[in-house]
Amino acid sequence: xxxxxxxxxxxxxxxxxxxxxxxxxxxxxxxxxxxxxxxxxxxxxxxxxxxxxxxxxxxxxxxxxxxxxxxxxxxxxxxxxxxxxxxxxxxxxxxxxxxxxxxxxxxxxxxxxxxxxxxxxxxxxxxxxxxxxxxxxxxxxxxxxxxxxxxxxxxxxxxxxxxxxxxxxxxxxxxxxxxxxxxxxxxxxxxxxx
Length: 194
What we know:
It is a single chain. With 194 residues, the protein is mainly α. The protein has one domain (2-142). The protein is built from nine helices and three strands. The radius of gyration is 19 Å and the shape is globular. The model has no long low-confidence stretch (mean pLDDT 88).
């Protein structure tokens, strides 16, 4: 679902002013994305859309057209996810980040948005937790990964609450352990105060 949203959001006139985006991307990079040069990916991937969009008289009309176009794809994705989640399919969490050089597919933020969209589509927080840990480890034949155990390997997010109860737990990261280093999440934010 992230892919459809990412292509749609390239045309959102307010996307680059998102507070969430400022938290994950440096201000200078966001400013560059707003320039004609920074819009190269949007323009090159939407060549078939450009004649239609240029015929629209305002940026709002262009955005409404693109949003309507992608709603069908997003809705079909939600229906599929809802069907699979209801049948306890082995979902594997992923966002295709960075599948393309798009500012609407930003690492970190894209995963958080995908979790919100999965819940909206009917996936439980427990299913999301498993889809991000145990299921991919099993699917890729990596039994040492995806769980906390003696002798295992794991990069960890230490959370202030149980992520199996609510995805809001992922917005309350207390510490990050990456390759054995303990990091403060605020130190990883693009808009951190130095």
